[in-house]
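Researcher: I'd like a structural prediction for the single chain below. Treat it as a standalone chain; there are no partners to consider.
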Amino acid sequence: MGNWAVVVQYYSDTYRTEFIRRGLETEEQALEELRAAVHTYLPSRHVVEQWRQVYRLAGQESYLVVIKGRLTKWECSLRVAELISDTTDPSASERARTEDAVAEDAVPEDAAPEDSAAEVSDGPQDRIPPGY
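Model: Treating it as a single chain, here is the predicted structure.
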């Protein structure tokens, strides 16, 4: 099973996240599914679509979709998500850690050694909480 998913997030009485598609093997597959979904996604609330506007958020593969129904306007965000931790499938977490370690090792040749150490410790770090 793959680690990539396409999700939709919206507010409807409460903030919600739904999976449009999960288990995709590559980021490229997820991006293809995302680009198709922005034109076809309909919310679980019964909206009779009159028109649709799709906005791409600058610098990201994330979209704001506005759907005008007969009575209301529906707004949601569609984006790609990568599974990086799964307590029911530890191999998924291990694959994500291995991929992150390989990416961190890719330091430019002209970078000073102290620069690469600072980069690793400065950014947010995903960790599995104790007890999982």
